[in-house]
Amino acid sequence: MRRSFKFLLRPTSKQAVALVTCLEDHRQRYNAAPEHRRIAYAKAGVSVRYGEQSAELKHIRGDDPGGQGRWSFSSQQATLRRLDKAFRAFFDRVKTGRTPGFPRFKGRGWFDPVEWPKDGDGCRWDSQPEHPASTFVRLQGVGQVRVNQHRPVRGRVKTISVKRQGRRWYVVLSCEEVPAEPLPPAGAVAGIDLGLASLATTSDGAHVADPRHLAATADRLATAQRDLARKKRGSTRRRKSVARVAALHAKVRRQRLDTAHKAALALVRAYDVIVHEDLRIANMTRSASGTIAAPGRNVAAKAGLNRSILDAGWGVFLQVLAHKAESAGRELIAVNPAGTSRTCARCGHRAKDNRVTQASFACTACGHAAHADVNAAVNILRAGLALRDAAQAA
């Protein structure tokens, strides 16, 4: 099994400057690569790929030993592979008729991670094991950087990445051969219905609260954004305002992730089989603004709904739940959510009028009444168990 471990870095002032310089040089290398591809195709009709650009790195580093030559060769190759992946995704979208989205140049502040593809090649995790109270990671061109390791690392470290988030620096370890940690059987199964009033509602009637972290920070965020709007572009005061807004968003992101981890862990400990809706969140949160010729309706209401869905963090929660279920040996099943909120869990009658209000369900055929989310969760559980039985029979 493969897992990632993320830790806060504690660089010195000089190391922080070196990290910023490393990030900037990798960003310039990333931006130079698509320009090379564009010019080669426009002037000579030649398609330049990753292999050719990787081979040129040796000459680029030799001509600039104090700049590009300071950093790990492997990390620069990883940056070029990242660009190549973006180009391959672009051409795949063109072939399938979707909106292409040509790979863009990365401006300052839009290029945050640098990856070292192999532990020991330009980087070294736990580079000073003789220090029992502290952990260090060695990065070529930066030095021995202290790590705030708050939990043990399991498995074999495969890749090491350094990521900037606001004013903080993090190291992300991708580990292979991580041993599973199966939990004892719980003897229970559950379906979960994701919502806005509650983050999740189980088929046995339990509700997981939705803290609405973004809504709780909305006033402070609005004040910080108004303050940012009054600052002159390029000024020191504007950079400080940008950092203040970014710090508030980062706090909301951390709070949302913490909620997802706690809620997912509670579900994994309580149930052997968990069935959830296979939601298309990107489609659900599309803008209703439309076009000039065909403007959308209820744009403000749809924007508020989209904000609430994204604030709930369904995608983060389902991703964390999948990882924890795999590690604990639990079974996770995704089902089509169509009709689950309008179908009676007792008689199976499906009608729009069954959903009396957002929270109440009353079947127009048999009179069954229940909490709407609990009724939907029961339908989700039945659909998931039916899928499992059909797969086992096949």
TrEMBL record:
Positions of the Probable transposase IS891/IS1136/IS1341 domain: 176-287
Species classification: Bacteria, Bacillati, Actinomycetota, Actinomycetes, Streptosporangiales
UniProt keyword Transferase, yes or no: no
Protein name listed in UniProt: RNA-guided endonuclease TnpB family protein
Family: In the N-terminal section; belongs to the transposase 2 family. In the C-terminal section; belongs to the transposase 35 family.
Molecular function in Gene Ontology: endonuclease activity
Record-linked Pfam families: Cas12f1-like_TNB (PF07282), OrfB_IS605 (PF01385)
Cas12f1-like TNB domain sequence ranges: 314-380
Keywords: DNA recombination, DNA-binding, Endonuclease, Hydrolase, Nuclease, Transposition
Transmembrane segment boundaries: none
